[in-house]
Amino acid sequence: QVQLVESGGGLVQAGGSLRLSCAASGSIFSINTMGWYRQAPGKQRELVVVITFRGSTNYADSVKGRFTISRDTAKNTMYLQMNSLKPEDTAVYYCNARNDFTDLEVWGQGTLVTVSS
After folding, report:
1. Nearest to residue 6, comparing CAs of 31, 24, 27?
2. Which residues of 12-32 are buried (b: 16+ CB within 10 A; e: fewer)?
3. Which DSSP string do the residues of 65-109 spell out, in sequence order?
């Protein structure tokens, strides 16, 4: 079992910054890919960024140059640094962990990010 706990969401003005955290616990060795997804009101959940165990990343075009994913393996924690936030970044942000070779996939509970104009 893998558990994910997100933190760091909140209300910020456009142009501001926030950092989200995702702490993983449990059978972490079974994970090979982690990422952040988001779901805005009335829209489907979409990819923000993923990172593989080798460190390869894949960002959504809408966040390239503004968001940065990182991880602290000693703390089993993944981060999402969000800069130059826009109102359209408003969404619930979810941490995701999976194994690309099995059906293992786990979601965090989500953290709300609200960007005011």
Report:
1. 24
2. beeeeebebbbbbeeeeeebe
3. TTEEEEEETTTTEEEEEE-S--GGG-EEEEEEEE-TTSS-EEE--
28: amino acid identity, one letter: I
Is the pLDDT assigned to residue 76 strictly greater than 90? yes
Closest CA to 71 of 1, 7, 24: 24
User: From CA 58, how far away is CA 88, in angstroms rounded?
Assistant: 20
Q: CA-CA distance, 103 to 65, in Å (whole number)?
A: 32
CB within 8 Å of 19: residues ≥ 6 apart: 8, 79, 80, 81, 82
User: Considering only CA atoms, which of 18, 13, 21 is closest in space to residue 86?
Assistant: 13
What kind and span of H or E run contains 9? none
What would the pLDDT profile of 47-71 be if each residue is shown by its tens digit?
999 999 899 999 999 999 999 999 9
